[in-house]
Amino acid sequence: MNNNDFIIRRENENDYREVENLAREAFWNLSVPGCFEHYFIHIMRDHHDFIPELDYVAVADGKIVGSVMYCKAKLVDEQRNEKDIVTMGPLCVLPGYQRRGIGKALLEHTFVIAKEMGYDTVINFGNPDNYVARGYKSCKRFNVCFEGDLFPAALLVKELEEGVFDGRKWFYHPSDVDAPCGDEEAVGRFDALFPPKEKGWQPSQEEFYIHSHSSING
Ligand SMILES: CC(C)(COP(=O)(O)OP(=O)(O)OC[C@H]1O[C@@H](n2cnc3c(N)ncnc32)[C@H](O)[C@@H]1OP(=O)(O)O)[C@@H](O)C(=O)NCCC(=O)NCCS
User: Fold this and answer.
1) What is the DSSP string of 173-203?
2) Atom number of ligand 1 nearest to Cα 133
3) In the chain, what are the domain boundaries?
4) Residue nearest to atom 28 of ligand 1 (CA)
5) Most buried by CB count within 10 Å: which residue of 19, 129, 156, 163?
6) Which atom of ligand 1 is nearest to the CA of 93?
7) What is the CA(103)–ligand 1 centre distance, in A?
8) Packing angle between helix 37-44 and helix 184-191, nearest 10 degrees?
9) Pocket flag, ligand 1, residue 92 (CB < 6 Å)
10) CB neighbour list of residue 32: distance below 8 Å, 6 or more residues apart
11) 7-176+198-212 fold
12) b/e string for 25-54 if b means 16 or more Cβ within 10 A?
């Protein structure tokens, strides 16, 4: 699929349920049995950290086949200086349309806009396989960590301009936008609005466990 086979445009209100359903299809059973990302998208749009200017969809064959969203976040250094950055995610492409360049196009399109908006850093927590080809590097390379000097293997940093980081330590302070996703009952109530789907195990869940419990040392 080349870029002539799909278009990228801003999400609008009429797309909301279709995008949530797309996220549910893309994330279902991927990291855990079932998924919460459709609920995450649903609540994210009303959060003060959500960035509507970076909320994009990909459309092909008359339907929405890809989605990307961003939220505001902060880096704080040891002198308590703050830097505004963005957190990317969720990013998802409809199964059947994956591995055809749509995710790449959504990222590259929104990186340009984020840079125009004045941001120089994108961070996300995810499987490095999906991101290193887009120029993301381990957080350890830029001395970006969580409080407690934790450098998770899945914490990935993308410089939108080269040389943003000068070696000083930065602590990553993500938005609390995903906090309600820990409420399994709320996720279940929202999920019940969609067609029934069977929860189950698949190997990607173990991969997720390994990535999300690993950190970079040395
Ligand atoms: C991850 C995802 C968004 C990627 O979108 P996509 O349209 O399938 O990916 P693309 O075709 O644009 O590929 C982008 C790059 O990632 C690589 N890639 C994509 N999926 C990959 C996978 N599962 N494993 C390894 N590499 C992968 C491609 O080889 C490509 O590399 P290249 O630029 O060097 O050619 C999509 O597969 C998806 O929705 N997956 C399920 C949800 C998910 O995992 N979201 C990300 C959360 S961390």
Assistant:
1) E--STTGGGG-HHHHHHHHTTS--------T
2) 34
3) 7-176+198-212
4) 99
5) 156
6) 39
7) 6
8) 90
9) yes
10) 205, 208
11) Aminopeptidase (3.40.630)
12) bbbbbbbeebbbbbbbbbbbbeeebbbeeb
Question: pTM higher than 0.70 for the full model?
Answer: yes
How far does the centroid of ligand 1 lie from the alpha carbon of residue 107, in Å?
11
Specify the amino acid at residue 177.
V
For residue 105, give the H/E element and its range.
helix 102-116
Flag residues of the chain having pLDDT under 50: none
Instruction: Note the pLDDT of residue 217.
Output: 87
Between the alpha carbon of residue 62 and those of residues 11, 65, 98, 99, the distances in Å are: 14, 9, 16, 19
Residue 1 has what pLDDT? 65
> From CA 147, how far away is CA 144, in angstroms rounded?
10
Q: What is the pLDDT of residues 120-142, one digit of tens each?
A: 999 999 999 999 999 999 999 99
Distance CA 19, CA 16 (A): 5
- The whole-number pLDDT of residue 4 equals 72
Residue 218 is predicted with a pLDDT of 67
Find, among 41, 151, 33, the residue nearest to 90 by Cα: 41
Q: How far is the CA of 81 from the centre of ligand 1 (A)?
A: 35
- Token pair 């609005």: residue: 193
* pLDDT score recorded for residue 147: 92
Pocket lining: 130 vs ligand 1, CB cutoff 6 Å: yes
Measured by CA distance, the residue closest to atom 46 of ligand 1 is: 91
Tell whether the torsion through CA atoms of 57, 114, 179 and 131 is positive or negative: positive
